[in-house]
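2024-03-11 09:14:02 DEBUG pipeline.ingest accepted 1 chain
2024-03-11 09:14:02 DEBUG pipeline.ingest length=25
2024-03-11 09:14:03 DEBUG pipeline.predict start
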Amino acid sequence: MTIIVYHIQHGIVNIISYSHQNIEG
């Protein structure tokens, strides 16, 4: 179960990083 939560958190961080890069351009 813990692995699943970690995977979800990692995915969210990935999305935030990608969005931030996209905004900076």
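2024-03-11 09:14:41 DEBUG pipeline.report The first helix runs from residue 2 to 24.
2024-03-11 09:14:41 DEBUG pipeline.predict end
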